[in-house]
Amino acid sequence: MKHxxxxxxxxxxxxxxxxxxRLQSMYGFGNVIATDVRRTGNEEAIFEIVDATxxxxxxxxxxxxxxxxxxxxxAILSAKGEADPLWAWNLNMQTLLNVLEVAxxxxxxKVFVPSSIAAFGEHAPKYETPQxxxxxxxxxxxxxxxxxxxxxxxxxxxxxxxxxxxxxxxxISYQSMPGGGTTDYAVAIYHEAVQGHDFDCFLSADTLxxxxxxxxxxxxxxxxxxxxxxxxTVRTSYNxxxxxxxxxxxxxxxxxxxxxxNVTYTPDFRQAIADSWPKSIDDxxxxxxxxxxxxxxxxxxxxxxISHLTELYHVTI
Length: 317
Ligand code: NAD
Description:
Layout: E1 6-9, H1 14-27, E2 32-36, E3 46-49, H2 55-64, E4 69-72, H3 78-83, H4 85-105, E5 110-112, E6 115-116, H5 140-159, E7 163-164, E8 166-168, E9 170-172, H6 185-194, E10 199-201, E11 209-213, H7 214-226, E12 238-239, E13 243-245, H8 247-255, E14 263-265, H9 270-275, H10 284-290, H11 298-312
Helix pairs in contact: 2-4, 4-5, 6-8
Bound molecules: nicotinamide-adenine-dinucleotide (NAD).
The site of nicotinamide-adenine-dinucleotide (NAD) has 28 residues, from helix 1, helix 4 and strand 9.
């Protein structure tokens, strides 16, 4: 494999925390530079504090480490973004433009910029949402993702930058807590069940949403980044599917292990966001072009989540 030095921006978030060890084993511990605006104290990586809204700080670290690829994971997510839309827009766009510019000026070989199912809105088909659908998002987060997809195409067409992207569904993981999205309930519910607590869900029982287990999300990311450039025809962002389920179905899958697990439903402002999103995703273009195939369904994911979280909390089922 060609020598690569990878910069991960937003490395202490939900996806970065799980992605780092994979990148380290692929490229070597010393060739992966983790950055974030905050420390967790658990960093097992070469780590530096870098605010990606600061273009010169970003350029400095890229040059000093001779970075060849960037995974840009810093963003303000859907629910958090609604609390302060202009702040979310500014952060999401400024970090994106800084990443694209440094990648262009420093001739980086590849850039990964995730999008989201939040790019879709009210007028996209709700079931099996196709790759090419109208993008009329309801949140500032979604608006920033649509803009990012278009900027990525622009940099690809105008400058030849090899920028790649996935529209992640809600990502479910045990490695770290999610950062303020509308699908966060699907992580929190496992933590409460394993600790023997009841769970109050902020979405209604029948809210069907597309989700993916972290293991599948990481494999998709790395497979996309490894795919030959000539296979990549989508430079906005690839639709990606894992599974779709409702909170009630998730609770039922957890009750196989905890029959007395009690869930109540108190929908809040996040219900309207969830209602504006697809219920299932057609990812046939990703399957065809670079061989994507998910490995985790709901029962398999629940078994893994409970196994890892019982270990984390030192409890038995
Ligand atoms: P997260 O909120 O858990 O992590 C984002 C990280 O970025 C945080 O650690 C934060 O401290 C850092 N950050 C914020 N501002 C920064 C700045 N100015 N400079 C540097 N770092 C900064 O998010 P995540 O869930 O890991 O998501 C990663 C990417 O995947 C985002 O683009 C997100 O939109 C996308 N995505 C995530 C999901 C999901 O379910 N987790 C779904 C769809 C898309």
